[in-house]
Amino acid sequence: MNNYVLDTNFFIQAHRLNYPFDIFPVFWNGIKDLAGDGKILSIDKVKDEIFSNEDDLKIWCDTNLPNDFFKDTQPVIAEYAQIARWANSRNSHYTQAALNEFLSADEADAWLVAYGLKNQTTIVTHEISQPDRKNRIKIPEPCNHFNVNFINTIEMLRALRQSF
Fold first, then answer.
1. For residue 2, what pLDDT is reported?
2. Which long-range contacts (CB under 8 A, 24 or more apart) does 103-109 make?
3. What single DSSP character describes residue 55?
4. Which domains does the chain show, CATH number per domain?
């Protein structure tokens, strides 16, 4: 079974834009079930980004996701180092600010790619490939380099044969 590791933007866009709690409770119940079944997960860095805001999304995650939903990234340090070396090798393409942001210890993106690389999971993100962009490293660029699969929310739900 392929597990799916969720990016922060999965939660934020669903909550704020596409599937607000008050209009699409069935979506969120489905996410809760998928998490409970171990089909979806995320990482501690995503949790930190979500939990930095005192809002309904934080409350929902805290009360509806299993205690082990957000995985520790310490076991993927070696893979993170590979991602960091790749990013730094692209310093003639990306701005220093883009590299600093991508490699920030509090930024989830590089850690998501490292987790996907080590555990052969598919990253669920709304980011799209923009290889010519210089001021931000998007998740698809290192994923493409390291052959880590990535898809968006709808693609994940179809792969899991979910309908709400």
1. 66
2. 106/45, 106/48, 106/49, 107/45, 108/7, 108/8, 108/43, 108/45, 108/46, 108/48, 108/49, 109/7, 109/137, 109/139
3. S
4. 4-159 (3.40.50)
pLDDT band per the 50, 70, 90 thresholds, residue 164 = confident
Band of the pLDDT at 62, cuts 50, 70, 90?
very high
Rounded to whole angstroms, how far apart are CA atoms 152 and 123? 8
pLDDT at 85 over 70: yes
Q: What residue has token string 């080590």? A: 118
Structure tokens at 94: 């990306």
Separation between Cα atoms, residue 72 and residue 14, nearest integer Å: 24
The pTM of this model reads 0.95
User: In sequence order, which ranges of 37-108 are alpha helices (DSSP H)?
Assistant: 44-51, 56-64, 77-89, 96-102
